[in-house]
Amino acid sequence: DTAVSQTPKYLVTQMGNDKSIKCEQNLGHDTMYWYKQDSKKFLKIMFSYNNKELIINETVPNRFSPKSPDKAHLNLHINSLELGDSAVYFCASSPTTTRRGYGYTFGSGTRLTVV
Amino acid sequence: DAKTTQPPSMDCAEGRAANLPCNHSTISGNEYVYWYRQIHSQGPQYIIHGLKNNETNEMASLIITEDRKSSTLILPHATLRDTAVYYCIVRLRPSGGGADGLTFGKGTHLIIQP
């Protein structure tokens, strides 16, 4: 079983469209995240979310919105896609209890290409 | 979270030990050192973390200097599959513990040569 799974793996879409990327984790973690990795390979956090708080990186445009139907899912919805949104998006999760050896678990990424 | 400095790239021969250094001179007493790696086109993968003592698991060993201002990740017998970007991250909490994520730097691109 894949611990953190993202769909789709690849997404090609036109400018101006609205799209969603889905993320599911089966680890029982309380907190989930979205990261963006641009063409220069820098990994930057976009959002972190648990059932109590949503923290948004202030540099993220409000066209991006996380939606969490339940604790195991954090989807990323993007409105009015722009060329600069092309990147690889990674979902991740982590426990909030400090158990030894536990770190963040990442999904395999969604490569978004806006044309 | 304290800032870290890593060399941009390193080479290592297959079968030899790969030693990846990380400087974190501004680390505070309750900050942990984490190591992650990202193999091409995959999501980052947790390797190991530590506070003060040296740590070892099935993937690697982590050596932290006594003053905690630097650390070294050791892959004891590097294989071609260890070619990846390795990130050294310093943060307050040893795992999730609050919705504030990880801050990734540029990391070290480790290339294992056959």
Characterization of the model:
With 115 residues, chain A is mainly beta. Chain A contains no helices and 11 strands. In chain A, strands 2, 4, 5, 6, 9, 10 and 11 form a 7-stranded mixed beta sheet that branches. A 4-stranded antiparallel beta sheet of chain A has the order 1-3-8-7, with no helix packed on it. Chain A is globular, with a radius of gyration of 14 Å. The model of chain A has no long low-confidence stretch (mean pLDDT 89). Chain B has 114 residues and is mostly beta strands. A 5-stranded mixed beta sheet of chain B has the order 1-9-8-3-4, with no helix packed on it. The A-B interface holds A 4, 29-31, 33, 35, 41-45, 48-50, 52-55, 90, 92, 94-109 and B 34, 36, 38, 41-46, 49, 57, 85, 93-104, 106.
Features:
heterodimer, A: 115 residues, mainly beta, B: 114 residues, 5-stranded mixed beta sheet, 4-stranded antiparallel beta sheet, globular
Low-confidence stretches of chain B: none
Strand portion of chain A: over 45%
Report the major sheet of chain A: 7 strands, mixed
Q: Oligomeric form of this entry?
A: heterodimer
Helix content of chain B: under 10%
Mean pLDDT figure of chain A: 89
Spatial order of the strands in the main sheet of chain B? 1-9-8-3-4
Low-pLDDT stretches of chain A are none
Query: What Rg of chain B do the Cα atoms give?
Result: 13 Å
- For the terminal residues of chain B, how far apart are their CA atoms? 37 Å
Total beta strands of chain B: 9
Please tell me what the overall shape of chain A is: globular
> Mean pLDDT of chain B, nearest integer?
90
Number of helices of chain A: 0
Helical amount of chain A: under 10%
